[in-house]
Specification:
Blueprint lengths: L1 H16 L16 E13 L5 H14 L2 E5 L1 H6 L2 H7 L6 E10 L2 E10 L2 E11 L3 E11 L5 E14 L8
Antiparallel strand pairs: 1-2, 1-7, 3-4, 4-5, 5-6, 6-7
């Protein structure tokens, strides 16, 4: 069952790793420096034969990732390159091969196949990117080791909430 969770989490990991980034070429939208809040909603999660408690665990994992705040300096924003991030795939040796990678004019339309930990999934990301907000739907489909097809659909919304917050002092 651990492999099923790895497959399902692949989309979330890739999305969070590259959340809100855009490439400079072709007049693509760049996000604004500052504090960004990311919310993740699990829209669909179907795995044949998965016990309800594991599905609940996956939903809780998504909830835990939701509401995450990240501070991006102007220097970090200037260096962002979604194409380079996507080419890396999900961490820990993952790799993605993209059949479609359109990131321009405030639109994100990406599709391909990603492999991590011996598992391969088809992935698609579609949405919008603005200077102060991005809204992307990530669809992940693949085979599960126990047989059958897995599908997960997540919606990830990142919103600029203002200047970076100063670290708390004690």
């Amino acid at each position: 069952m651990k492999k099923i969770m790895t497959i399902a989490a692949l989309g979330a990991l890739l999305a969070v790793a590259g959340c809100g980034k855009s490439e400079n070429a072709g007049g693509a939208v760049k996000r604004e420096a500052g504090n960004w809040k990311t919310d993740i909603k699990l829209v669909k999660f179907e795995v044949p034969g998965m016990p309800p408690e594991m599905k609940e665990g996956m939903a809780k994992m998504m909830e835990g990732a939701s509401g995450m705040d990240q501070c991006f300096t102007q220097e970090q924003v200037d260096k962002e390159d979604i194409a380079a991030e996507l080419a890396k795939g999900p961490g820990n040796g993952g790799e993605c091969k993209w059949s479609k990678k359109d990131i321009a004019g405030g639109k994100i339309d990406i599709a391909g196949t990603c492999t991590a930990n011996g598992q391969t999934v088809d992935m698609a990301m579609n949405g919008t990117m603005e200077a102060k907000k991005s809204d992307v739907t990530i669809t992940t489909k693949g085979k599960v080791p126990t047989g059958g097809d897995m599908e997960m659909v997540m919606q990830m919304t990142s919103t600029h909430t203002g200047p970076c917050k100063a670290p708390a002092t004690t």
